[in-house]
Amino acid sequence: MPIIVENSLPACAVLESENIFVMTHHRATTQHIRPLRIAILNLMPTKIVTETQILRCLSNTPIQIEIDLIQTATHKSTNTPEDHLLKFYQTFDDIKDQYYDGFIITGAPVEKMDFEEVDYWPELVEIMEWTKTHVHSTLHICWGAQAGLYYHYGIQKHLLPKKLAGIYKHHIMPNRTNESLLRGFDDVFKAPHSRYTTVLSEDILCNHNLILLAESYEAGPYLIAAKNGRQLFVTGHSEYDKETLAKEYFRDLHKGIHPDIPENYFDGDDPHNEPRLSWRSHSTLLFTNWLNYYVYQSTPYELNSLI
Question: What is the DSSP-derived secondary structure letter of residue 198?
């Protein structure tokens, strides 16, 4: 899928070096089709890394996507250059009168805090409420998934005894193999997790507005959908690069946190060895299925008809 972004966005050079097709705005305007409008609310502190990871995941089907990058106004990132934020990011006030085919809410390193203690929680609540009328399908990732499940459906998160970090096997739930999001999935597939909190399968199964699509015996619920398909929740980080968990592990090690070695990740479970990339095909299929079946195939041509 051609990703339509500003030529000077750092992700452009990275993606083009990986032979991923990135389309400039000029070329896009010469094609007489309506691109999908996707906004990414990037809550991660290292925004350039995260935007590149997600854009990579969105790049594998043949439809144009027009991307807007969104940041919170009530919390300023200190790990991303200010000129990058000013050039490429908007705030909710800038886009609240617009409509989107798809919207992505990323994770954030605030899991140990109660939701209401997060300084931008009121702003995030406003955005999540707005997505009900201005977005056709919203994809929530990791903490973003926990926040969405809590706000929309009252699902509580629970603190784990220790950080869950590694690559875990997942399985499709019985009688869910025909769900559109799962088309092409293997019976057992792998995905990364990196978090201190979780939601419980029994809480999802007891909610009549939600469908548990896939889970892990080790990592818990993984893919959750609202029954109307307008909201999807991914509790892991399928967008992660090969080196992401390694960087997190060595960062925490240098901070004196003494983290456990990420499970099923380094060759031989030895952090001196290279990590093994074993989830890329799942990640690509997950994002492609979301874009195709939950966005492109069902979004209205006139987006303002969503309301």
Answer: E
Write out pLDDT tens, residues 67-81: 999 999 998 887 788
pLDDT tens sequence across 169-185: 999 999 898 899 999 99
> Quick check: is 142 catalytic?
yes
Q: Does 157 count as an annotated binding residue?
A: no
Residue 161 confidence (pLDDT) above 90? yes
For residue range 140-153, what is the model confidence (pLDDT) as tens digits?
A: 999 999 999 999 99
CATH number, position 72: 3.40.50.880
If asked whether residues 252 and 164 sit together in one domain, one would say no
Q: Is 183 annotated as a binding residue?
A: no
| The one catalytic residue among 142, 193, 248, 282 | 142
Q: Mark whether 251 and 234 lie in a shared domain.
A: no
Tokens 């299925």 sit on residue: 289
Has 206 been annotated as catalytic? no
Pair (258, 288) in one structural domain = no
* Comparison of pLDDT for 201 and 296, the residue scoring more: 201
Domain span at residue 72 reads: 3-242+277-306
Close Cβ partners of 107 (under 8 Å, ≥ 6 residues apart): 43, 44, 141, 142, 143, 144, 145, 195, 237
